[in-house]
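Quick bug: Lon proteolytic domain-containing protein output formatted oddly.
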Amino acid sequence: EPRLELTPEALAALITRWTAESGVRSLERSLAQICRWAALRLQGVDVQGGNGAERDAQREAVLASSGPDASGRIVVSAEHLSCILGVELFEPDIAERLTIGVAMGLSVSSVGGQLLFIEATKTVGSGKLTITGQLGKVMAESVETALSLLRSRFVRTDSRGTQASVSSEGLFDILMSRRDSSGGTGGSSVRVNSGEDRDPFKGEDIHVHFPAGGIPKDGPSAGVAVLLALASLVLNRPMRSDTAVTGEVTLRGHVLPVGGIRDKVLAAIRGGVRHVLLPLANKRQVLEDIPESSLVGIQVHYMKHVDDALDWAFERESRLGDEEVEALASQGGKALGGGASAAQVWSQKLASGTSLVLPLTSRL
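Here's what came back:
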């Protein structure tokens, strides 16, 4: 008969709060430490924590319920783990709620996937961009790409070939215009309110920071998350705090596939995230590499363009879903989720009539 039992809650807490790697080495070491503690306890050896008599008394009071019982069996529950293994090493990152200018990305390191919070802020200045967090060249370039894409939604080229900036009124509708970010003059024309013409970041310096500055970071997969953090600054509203995102972004707003999908999704699950946005091109990796049982409690949504992420992150009427993904993918890869609602928005704008006409190539 087994002399040591770990409750399911204890095992889940052990995996999520004392280990972080995608393998099992850290888990094996933690289990071995629990077994050694149980063996000493069964032999009646008093294992002191070395933190003083009062702390040791509190620790023993918690461990008293673990046994051994009359049959000599020890049962370890989640509340006992901190007394056996010490302070938990990894706290659920979802506790850090998102505020304006913060987006939740996903990354992969040598110990597995993890949540990556991206922070953006602005101060009075001259348009300077500062990027910190010990980033590699590729990751720094992805920040510049996201900023250029965001600015391209507000500064267009008119029919005379000169640039015209739109006002800050109706920022969300302008941001969701689904224009061709190349600034060409083809396609239909959309009227927007005129006013004080300005770049959304004119006269302001922008600082984008990736926390855990002591850890080197590189790769293009944070592009969409950076765009959402910057969009949050422009809109002055936080993105959904239950959503994490990964994906490379181009100057045209297309979302490209990235690596480490399995580890990233599992990190989102461990962090208590309810929704994760992934590139549509990565759907195959989700279906093949992640057991369906592991996806209980989290919804995976797919995006082909940054507008899909903006729709979801700032809670537009449309929602990304598997049915929309399948239907649109079969039609040759049109924009996912939110196309109809965007068309309605712009048809209303055209009907109302305003003073500044900006050309665009529609993606609806």
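Actually, after a second look the formatting is fine. Residues 189 and 359 are 4 Å apart (CA to CA). Closing.
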